[in-house]
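Sample entry (328 residues):
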Amino acid sequence: MPIAHLPTGIHLSYLDSGPPPSSTPGSYTTLLCLHGVAFSASVFTLAAQSAPSKNLRFITYSQRGYTGSTPLSAEEAALTADPVACARDYVEDLVEFLEYLARKEEGVEKVVLVGWSKGTNLCVGLLSPLFTSVSSDIRARGLKHVKSVVLYEPPGNLMGLPLTEDYKAAMLAPIPEGLGKEERDGVVARRFGEWIGGYYEHPDVNSGEYATNPTGHFTFTAEQDWAREAQEPGMVSHGFHWRLALTPREISAISLSAATSSFIPITLLYNRRSAAYLIEAARCWKEWGGNAREIGRGKGNHFWFVEDAEGWLGAVIEAIGELEGKEV
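Predicted structure, serialized as tokens:
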């Protein structure tokens, strides 16, 4: 993957599908996708491969701490760094990367920002003036390069919501005593993967009746290099550490302002068979008056963009068209 060397001294490894064949600048849409916890930019490999056939340019980068990008500091790795300052750094990296693309890549003056899972925090942090850790000047520099925003399955804590039963069952069970840090981290990472990758048969998502345990799990094809590279379980603990504010109420206010007050069009997409913690976030977004819609026709879960890259891209294209009032 190429490396973006930013003026701040940070470097970010990124994936770029390039312009669609026979296209000219301005004749296609560019998606800039932001990954979530424990998965690098490589998780979007299949979507990037499918994008040009849909007149899309697909760009994604690996955030700090992930392979190929600037490593975490000692404090960040030890989880002693200020969690809100970590979030600020990630959002400011996003701004710098947007400016890098505008300088270096012809036809990438403006993008559709697509956040997946915890990557949605970066979208909200950029959009909301209530995330005051980022200055108004830096925020304006980033937003000038964003046409619209798609939040794909944000976690419930981005809305300040309490933990759901599926999360508690998977993540809060006691960890066996006597394990070293690396072993404990491995247990947490394994539980996280099984929970977030589960397929759930919810009785009625509209009324909040959810399944606690999955009936199956999404699994990556192990023989593919990109699939092995995409998974970085060692980043789970740090991914849980950083956040936009210290209290759920503050985080809720930040997200509410993005849902209802942003001058940039924004929508939320989710799959019916994903974990309840993700669907509850969509329900909350709707209750706030935000734009949210189910995709996947009842088939997909949190990894639908891997399982059916073309179907997922089609749903994203449709959502963008509705946001911007035109065919993409």
